[in-house]
Design a protein that fits this description.
Blueprint (H helix, E strand, L loop, with lengths): L1 H36 L16 H8 L1 H34 L5 H13 L2 H22 L6 H27 L2 H9 L4 H29 L3 H6 L9 H8 L8 H29 L1
Helix pairs in contact: 2-11, 3-6, 3-8, 3-10, 4-6, 6-8, 7-8, 8-11
Length: 279
Amino acid sequence: MGRLRSWADRALEPILWLDTLLTYLFLYLPIGVLILYSFSASRYALVWGGFSLEAYAKLLTDPEIALALSNSVIVALVSTALATVLGTALALALERARLRFQGGVEVLVYLPIVIPEIVMAVGLLLFFAQVLRPLLSTLGLTLSPLPTVIVGHVAFSISYVMVVVRARLRDLDRSLEEAALDLGATPLQVLRKVTLPLLTPAIISGALLAFTLSLDDFYVTYFSTTGGSGFKTLPLYLYALQGRAAIPPQMNAAATVMLGASLMLIALALLVQRRGRRG
């Protein structure tokens, strides 16, 4: 029986390797083609015209791309700051406080992670158009796209920050906080001088994750601007390029830059989190 199982394992091994190879090719070959064509000298994004850095040079001189990139960075920075503060506070509340309806609260907190992003985007659109805009109009105020996009990004980023920080919070040694309390520290002092310093790696990781998600988000951004304003982040700018008769090569270069930035931020978040666990 053991020999038969060993023979079956050896027979399945090349099949499993082939399946793994095909899976990775299916996932990453399009990304490789995108990166390759970002170095094309052709005037068209879908045509190879030899190796050139011209598309990347145009990224630095195109005012539309510069504006879209600055909008993306502003939205990502502000939404990340807000989501990090709120997500950390939410993690502390769920893990340390005894909430009356904690089960229901946790379900609501995890919803932005579980539900399709398009559902959340449409919900935000209805909220801004049918609730917030009429409310502000009665006060003589107008609703501009930048605040709505920031609010939308904060809404889905909070949950990701909370998950990362809460996972670290569960692993903390409670005896350190109890010892600080026994030595006369107030709960607020324990939070500032013991809990938050120990949570710093997780908070940084959650912030980097939120920044990455905000930087390349499309659905929430598009619907938060009601789809018709002139406000564009870099993902919206790339989407708008598809409507042109000839797609310029800058689209490939901009997408490659976004890919590289996202990978670096994710790698940095994982590195910070790993060092925090070792510490």
